[in-house]
Each structure stands twice: as structure tokens, then as C-alpha cells.
Amino acid sequence: MADGSAALTATRTACPYCGVGCGVIGATAAGTRAVAISGDAAHPANHGRLCSKGTALGATVSLAGRLLEPTIQGRAASWDEATSLVARRFRETIARHGPDSVAFYVSGQLLTEDYYVANKLMKGFIGSGNIDTNSRLCMASAVVAHKQAFGADLVPGCYEDLDLADLVVFSGHNAAWTHPVLFRRMEAAKARGQKHVVIDPRRTDTAEGADLHLALAPQSDVRLWNGLLADLIRRGAINGDFLRDHVDGYAAVVAALEEDDQSPSAVAADCGLALADLKTFFDLFAAHPRTVSLFSMGANQSAQGVAKGLAIINAHLATGRVGKPGACPFSITGQPNAMGGRETGGMANTLAGHMDFAPEERDRVARFWGAPNTARAPGLKAIDMFEAVRDGRIKALWVMATNPAVSLPASGAVREALDRCPFVVVSDCVETDTTAFADVKLPALAWGEKDGTVTNSERRISRQRALFPPPGQARADWRIIADVAAAMGFDGFGWPHAASVFREWARLTAYENQGRVLNLEGLTRLDPQAYDALGPVQWPVDAQGQGRARLFEDGRFQTANGRARLVPVRPRGPAEATSDKFPMALNTGRIRDQWHTMTRTSLAPDLCRHAPEPYVEVHPDDAKAVGLTDGALARVMTTRAEAVAVAKLSDRQRRGSLFMPMHWTDAFAPAGRANALVAPMTDPTSGQPEFKHTPARLGAYRETWKGFFLAREPAVVVDPELVWRRTPREACHQHEFAGRGDRSQRTALRKRLARGLTGEIVAYEDAATGAMREAWIRDDTLIAVLYMTESGRLPPRDWLVDLFGASLTAETRATLLHGFPPGAPVDKGPMVCACLKVGGKAIEAAIAAGASTTDAVAAATGAGTNCGSCRPEISRMIRVLADAKRETADVL
Fold this sequence. Notes:
Layout: E1 2-3, E2 9-14, E3 23-28, E4 35-39, H1 52-55, E5 71-72, E6 75-76, H2 79-97, E7 102-106, H3 112-126, E8 131-133, H4 140-150, H5 159-164, E9 167-171, H6 175-178, H7 180-191, E10 195-199, H8 205-208, E11 212-214, H9 221-234, H10 240-246, E12 247-248, H11 250-257, H12 264-271, H13 275-287, E13 291-295, H14 297-300, H15 305-318, E14 328-331, H16 338-344, H17 359-369, H18 382-391, E15 396-400, H19 404-407, H20 411-420, E16 423-428, E17 440-443, E18 452-455, E19 460-464, H21 477-487, H22 498-510, H23 528-532, E20 537-538, E21 564-565, E22 584-589, E23 615-618, H24 620-625, E24 633-637, E25 642-649, E26 657-661, E27 694-700, E28 705-711, E29 722-728, E30 733-739, H25 743-754, E31 760-766, E32 771-778, E33 781-789, H26 798-803, H27 810-815, E34 831-833, E35 838-839, H28 840-848, H29 854-861, H30 871-891
Parallel strand pairs: 7-8, 7-15, 9-10, 9-13, 10-11, 12-21, 13-14, 15-16, 16-17, 22-26, 23-25
Antiparallel strand pairs: 1-2, 2-3, 3-4, 5-6, 5-17, 18-19, 19-20, 22-27, 23-26, 24-25, 24-27, 28-30, 28-33, 29-30, 31-32, 32-33, 34-35
Helix pairs in contact: 2-21, 3-16, 3-21, 3-22, 4-15, 9-12, 9-15, 18-20, 28-29, 28-30
């Protein structure tokens, strides 16, 4: 589905990042890897708008770090050799130890076709349920809540409901950072009068502009939503007719609520909220029948995530706020194809097509596949799977398109498991922390090369189309899996192209379908041409190819009696309580401009500027208690591990709580890996890990020296005694170091960094202060520069970074070792607008000059005029500077 001139081809595809599922147009020229990115105005998910990550996709399609050929134990191999080895080792392991001795760990980065083939091989032909997805880490609790309440994993709403709602409740959902395109839609609705309530312990960018922020105590969500339901019952705000005609379980929920004191004062005290704020929330919910409650990682990533989801759904069912325009509980997915994985059986506890392991459903899938050995029971969920790898029950593991050595909780134990496993296969497009443990690496296609489908958060199927031919020997994931299946001796994997895989998947959803909502009947006859031209469509898809935007409009649910179920839930304390030794609660999550473990976003230098290093956000009072100042290095310790990150003091953080982003890896900041700290506590039903509450302790790092190294190529540093991080810049890589050793540690580092560098060396050293500065120059070009100090300040980096993009002059050469640029130094401040490269200092200057709104700042600087992801931060800067100005005026 391409159009344009012969010189430039414009291809419609879908963004590979979050679950919004934005449409993207990539304009390419034949024979190049260059692409111009724009939003697809015709795509109903985003109407042409993209966030900072989507806007920067063109900077992420290089072949840097790519896997381009199969390898076996580090040596290059042919596809035939690698495929035969994988098939043989899996066959032998199954023969000796049974089908449950092998496992697949897959990813929401896979396309639906990939997911389907992997699930068919493992559950259908190997005969084990041991395939699970990294969506277990983000959406598993919502899946269980949907199944218990609605009878199946069904998201009832659509994005139009976000426009139509009079009230939007963000429950553990920082939409301004994680789903910025949808947030822009809701900002527009807010300007028309829509109310926003944010339920989050942190005052996030989403909370900054909300009508009400409930900074509740960690893990008190169930108590809050139960208190809301009790209040709605007291004031007679439930929908009795809807309950009578369409819902079961009301009496049981009422009885469960009566076991606790549901008075507003008791609920407010237990949630750590001001009573007035709690009552405001209750009043807003009662007064606005058109309410959408968005819940995401903050609700799901919990040892009581299912209960949180059910408590939210209970409030909606009791008031009839489901199946109606502008009214629904809305689980918003994190990955581009988390939904596709859920549909195709990518989770260990489900079969394809929203079928489970009940005998009749299992037999139906087995008949369709012609696979009598189809698994009869669920397999191991992610945390249990890697524990089974670690203790030897699983002896062959295939990891596809994900990086569990970084992303799973207690990732140190995950690395130990991978190291112990007799046979590890990793199919991915890039080298990761996980590929370091692989016996066999299989090169997969990346975004821009893939061809298939994804399903977004509103059940909308979109096409990802190839912009470039496959590089090297890289292959589609579904093809890699199918070739291994064939080499294992299994029939039914001989699809000629992705369209035939999709067609089979669609046929399975329609097969003996007597009421399953997930039904792609209208897509079962797509030939390759129709598949290539397929436009965005929401499931279910009827025989005429028409999708449905909103579910349950007729009050019918996918339960045996067609009625929804209210499910009693009781509040519980954290899975692991804080203590005198670990008195703080660690919460991990995402940042605005990075994605997962940075394998793609790190290739775009502009995306690395907003938050260039691992940090721990801490309330100033908590920082003061342990002697931490803003910008100092902090130690974060749990029972599992220790990390070092830059302290970011902020009253946006609740006292007693810490927040750390989860993105950094061995390649960028090995000491800053947040998920190594997280205890592997899980929800007992969903198996979803608790990322939002790990008992922790905070302290100062107290380095004896620090320094930085700028070089055209990334440095390889392997030293557990050093704290370091790397940030890609436009023409170089910025490395920051800190250590607690003596000068011999610095000397050893200097020798490692200088290895391989050539050219003229200019140097300066001051033994009294421990300052050392060196620069490597070749043909008036700066190759590298190294600064270290034991005391005193290091110079700003930006002006040195700029020197890598131009020839050195006599003036700039002379100032290299002085530690400051010629002329007045220019401090751009932290990057705020990644799209247009506008720093914080420029925005502050515009505000000081009278720009009092985000639109005024945009007019003065350009910031916020492209994707708009930075607009909440600009609004916050305006408020902070205005508050400071008022305080100064009061003093005077």
C-alpha cells in the first residue's frame, strides 16, 4: 500500500512503541535506509499526531548493533545449520525430559502473525503451555479482571469515548508520558470542560494539570475504589435497572463492603488522603455518568493488580457505565501488540482465540490445528518460568524479541537462570543483555522491515508494512519459528507469506464460534493483495468486514448467562512490607522519551537528552535525612540488589517513596538497572509482578572522584567498581564516571579509554586538585576528550560535544583544556522539547519575558508545536516560575 513518485515511496505503517497504535507514513528512497516520518492523518488512532518517540523513528533505523547473521556459540552459521541445531536440541530435550522441559518467552514487540505461529508450535505441537510473554509484566492483571467480570479478555471502550467522557479518571496511568497522543486528545476535551482526576502516589505530568490529584498511599487503590462504590450505594447513585437486567454478584459485593468501615473519613485515613479531596472525587464520579476510568501499569503491576482492576470495573458495572458512549473502564496497554499476544494465546494460561484449557475449548483448538497433542493445562508464567530455568526444570529456552535480563524483576536471578540453562536461543534484531547468554542467536527483522499486523488498546488491527528490504540474513519471526517447527518434523507450518498466517489465525477465531466476541470472520478470506491493502479495523469483524467500536452496548457479556459479574475484592497490604532496615517504597516505571530497554530509542540522540541518566526521584525531606543533595549520586538498596543513580529531589514524590526508571542496561548504565532491585512478588491469580512497591533503603554514594569521556565511538567499560553511564549524542558518545577508589583506579580507567585512540594528545594535570584533562586530535578534528577531578567542578559538556561536529580552530584548541568555551558559555539546560531541540533555559527565558501559557511559550520557542509530549512539562515550568515570582514578591 505505497504511493508517491518513483524517487520517493510513501508507505503506511504503524508505530512500534506504545499501545495507542498510531498510524505512521514512512517516505523512503530506493537503495537507502533513510526515511522521513510523518503521522498518518487518515489513521483513526492518532489522526496524524505522533509523540516524540514516533517522530524520531527515522533516527532509529540504522544497522548499528544489529544481528545480521545466525551465530552458534559466537561463530557465524548458516540458517540451515542454526535451524537444524535448534530443532535437534529441542527435540532431544523433549524426548528425554518431556514437553514441559522447554519454554518460549516472547514479546509484545512481535507481530500477531509471529505470536500465532509461536503459540501453535509450543501449545499445539510440542504440547506444553510453556509460552509466556513480557505482556505478563504489564497487562496480565487486567486480563484476569476482564475475564472474571466480562467472561473474556474484552476491552469495552474505544478512543472516541475519551473525547465523549465528561470525567476521565487516570488510575496509575501517567498518560502524558506513556500515551502522549491520547493525552493530547484528552487535553483538547479538557479545554471543552472535561474533568480529570489522577490517582497516583507521584505528582506526574498527568497529575500536574488535573482537576484533582489523589496522591494515595502505595497499594491503597482497592480501598479507595471500594470506598467509592460504598459511597455511590449510600447516595443512591447506582443503576438498579442495569444491575437487575445485566449484572450478577451485587449482594456479595455489598456484603464484602460491609466488612470494613467505608466512611469517607476511614477511607481517607487508610489511603493517606485529605478528606476534602476524597469527597471531591466521590462527588465528581457520582455527578458524571459519562466517565472513563483509564488504568494501566500503576494499577496492574501489583501483587493485588487483579483486585485493583476488579474494583474499578465494579464501580462501572454498579453504575451502568459500560457499553455506552463516553463511559467504560479502559485498560490501556503498554506495548504495540500486547493485545495481539493476548488474542493469539501468547500467555501461558490461555489458548488462541480467547479460548482456555477447558476440555471443549482445548479440543476445539486441537481439531482446528490437527494437533492431538495440544497442551491440556496452562504453562508457567514469566516469573515461575525463569525460576524453573534456574532450578533446572526447563532445560531449553527460546527468548524472542525481548530482554528479560533487564526487564524482569530480580534480574540478577534471571541472569543466573540464563547462565545455568543448558540451551538458550535468542531471536532478536539487536544485541542485548540477554543475547550475551545465548548459545544460538537468530537475526530477526526490525521495525521498518517487518510485515504483519498489530492490535492496539481499542482492539484496532493495523498493518505494519516494510519500508526497507531485509538487511543481511535477517528473517521474519514467524518464518524463523515455522522453519524450526518444520525441522522438528511438524506439519502445518508451511505458510508462503504473512497473509496466509493471518488468514489461518482469522479462521481460528471464527471456528465453531458460538458467542465468542473475538471473531475475525470478515477477514478470513483475505488474499495477499487484500491483506496488503488492509486498513485499520476494530474487532469483532463481521462477515461484511465491518468492525465494532464499542462492546456490550446491548448489555450482553461473554458469560454463560450473558450477564456481567461483580466480584468482591478486599484491600490487602503490600506483598512485602517496609521495615526499619528498608523503610522506603521503591516504584519503578517509564520515562517520556525512552522505550523499554533502549534498544531502539537510544539510536536517536535527541531522545536521550530529556533524562540522560538513571535517576532516583526522592522527596527533599527524605533526601535530607540521608545527606543527599540534588544531583548527587545515590545508592538505592533492596534485599535483591543495589543500584546507583542521580538523586532528583522533588516534592512531586510522596514522602517515604522512591521512583526509578527501568530503561538502562549494561550498555548504557549497568549500575543503574532498576529492575534488579525489584523483588519477584506476583499477583496470585495473574502472575503479574509487583513493580510498584519494593521495600528499599536510600543512601549517598560518596564518590572520591568523577569525570567524563567524550568520544566518537562508545567505550566498552567492564568494571564493577565504577559507576558509569553512556549517553549517545549527535556526533559522539558522552560517558560519565564516578568511583570511590584512589588515583590508581583513575589511571587504570584512563589506560582503558585511551586504548586504540590515535592522533595528537594535548594534556593538563594538576596533582594538587586531582584534575586531569586530555584531548586527542587528528587533522583538526576532535577524536576524544577526557576530564577527571577529585575535587571541584567539571565543565559543562554541551560546548565540548558541539566541537565534534566541526573542525577545531586555534581558539577552540587553546580552550580545550581550560575547561570553558571561548566567549560567554551557553547553557541550554535539560532538553525539554525533543522534537525541536528546545532546552529548558530557552523556555525559562520565554516565561520570564511574559509567556504565561504553553501556547505563548510555543510561539516564542517552538517547543510543544510538534508532538506536544513536552507541553505538560512546559505547563509545570510556568507554574513553578510563577510561584517563585510570587514568593519573591511576598518577601519584598
